[in-house]
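#struct-pred

JT: dropping the chains for the assembly here, can someone run the whole complex?
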Amino acid sequence: MGDGSRLGRGVYYKCYNEVKMQETNTYKNLKDLPRTNSPEYIVLHHTGGTQADPNADTSHHTANGVEKQHLSQGWEGIGYHYFIEKNGTIWKGRPEHRHGAHVKEGGINKKSIGTCLAGNFTVEGRKPTDEQKNALAGLIRDIRGKYSIPIEKIQPHRAFLGTPPYKDCPGDQLSDDWVQKLLIPEENLNMVSVPRKLLEELTQYL
Ligand SMILES: [Zn+2]
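RK: done, full complex below.
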């Protein structure tokens, strides 16, 4: 069975492997606390440069490393709800029902899901890996389904920083609609996404 094909009557399907996630200590520590977040937006971040070098390549940064850094700032855990490492591994950070610490402006921390890709996409030629793109697309598909988030409410961090933005997060190598475009094949091509396991089960009966 291939990865995607025409299903008939102009409907296409695309298989995806079910998203595997790891849990940070932040997730474990906060998951039973009451709701403080009502997601309306999905916000994308990158790890960006370091203080010493704004052009540093941070694509090897890990969820555990960023968690440690945020804890050392006195925060209650990693600031994002999801962190996607270079190899595509998704880490659960803050539980979705808890507020994040990733966009100060406009109370967005209490009405969004914050996602972060490891990497510094400010530097020309640096882009997320295919593994990160696939993981992010799958993750956003799940989140949008859960909270009915329209595509225009999936935004880069810099969209919330006023004019002109004082940060370029998630890097100017990623356009404002980069995530939206990542999802477009499914929006426009009558594409249905089917978990591979389910498709394999269903096609037994065809
Ligand atoms: Zn950011």
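JT: nice. The chain has one domain: 20-185. The mean pLDDT is 87.
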